[in-house]
Design a protein that fits this description.
Layout: H1 2-6, E1 31-38, H2 42-54, E2 59-68, H3 78-93
Parallel strand pairs: 1-2
Length: 99
């Protein structure tokens, strides 16, 4: 996948292409990671969530069933509305606005 996406610029080892390649900071904020069931990046996203959690981050992992990469372009679909609400709830909970 990376070869196709990056063409001649690399193989995905760059932190610019994949957060998995970036060193983690000393302090890791809470993270919301949403995975689409039929997404070629799903497994890498799950691995990144596990990496953050192992480093001490509080990770909210939302595995969306029956979805594909970019599913939320269908703004009025029930699955999109439900998951946008989850994103908003996470942001409110983890910012001053939510306290």
């Amino acid at each position: 996948m990376w070869r196709l996406y990056l063409k001649n610029t690399g193989n995905g080892d760059s932190a610019d292409a994949s957060p998995m390649s970036a060193p983690l900071p000393d302090v890791i904020p809470d993270a919301y990671i949403e995975l689409a069931e039929f997404d070629c990046l799903r497994d890498e996203g799950a691995a990144y969530a596990a990496r953050l959690a192992a480093a001490g981050a509080d990770v909210t992992l939302n595995r969306t069933r029956g979805t594909f990469h970019g599913y939320d372009i269908a703004q009025h679909a029930r699955v999109t509305r439900e998951n946008v609400a989850r994103r908003v709830d996470f942001i409110k909970k983890h910012t001053k606005k939510g306290s």
